[in-house]
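Input structure tokens:
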């Protein structure tokens, strides 16, 4: 599968990094609804059971476990980005998110699983590692909990559970397997487009 070329992230200055983090946050704040739509749409009880632990962890709980979005917001605030929720994303990022939302809302569940698993969870380290380096270089006192979670076995476990859900669907309808790689490539290309658009915007400033 295609790998992102994101070394440019490690060369960001502090203002460029703030822009990237805010744009990235726009996708992160939509991830939980994406996952929730897949849980709601799936006709398979086993697929729902495999996805629910991920959804619960992403959402946090009222007893004190922070959502992943709140953990990301703590990172942003530690990088001097106050009230990130009021930021308006660029049109290109909004259009990228609309593609993902449309897929999870009205596309087929198997494609959604391929995109949210192998084309998102399983490849997240490709952009999180250089982003981690950029934060470390520009924000020496940053709260790195978000990276600790998403560059750990927890993220690997999420990707594994989604893969099990994919295999569950493939076992009941073998004809869909031939579409797997096409769906994964399409999802990865959307992520790649998001990062390329950011790189172009920064390069033009």
């Amino acid at each position: 599968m295609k790998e992102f070329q994101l070394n440019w992230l490690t060369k960001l200055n502090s203002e460029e990094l703030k822009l990237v983090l805010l744009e990235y946050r726009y996708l992160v704040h939509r991830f939980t609804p994406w996952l929730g739509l897949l849980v709601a749409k799936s006709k398979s009880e086993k697929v729902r059971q495999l996805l629910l632990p991920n959804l619960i962890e992403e959402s946090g709980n009222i007893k004190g476990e922070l959502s992943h979005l709140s953990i990301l917001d703590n990172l942003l605030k530690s990088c001097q980005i106050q009230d990130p929720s009021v930021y308006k994303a660029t049109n290109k990022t909004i259009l990228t998110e609309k593609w993902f939302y449309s897929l999870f809302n009205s596309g087929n569940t198997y494609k959604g699983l391929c995109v949210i698993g192998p084309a998102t969870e399983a490849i997240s380290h490709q952009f999180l590692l250089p982003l981690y380096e950029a934060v470390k270089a520009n924000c020496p006192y940053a709260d790195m909990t978000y990276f600790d979670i998403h560059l750990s076995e927890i993220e690997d476990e999420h990707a594994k559970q989604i893969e099990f859900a994919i295999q569950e669907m493939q076992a009941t309808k073998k004809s869909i397997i031939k579409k797997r790689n096409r769906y994964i490539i399409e999802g990865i290309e959307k992520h790649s487009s998001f990062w390329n658009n950011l790189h172009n915007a920064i390069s033009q400033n």
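The CA atoms of residues 14 and 185 lie 32 Å apart. The chain has a mean pLDDT of 94.
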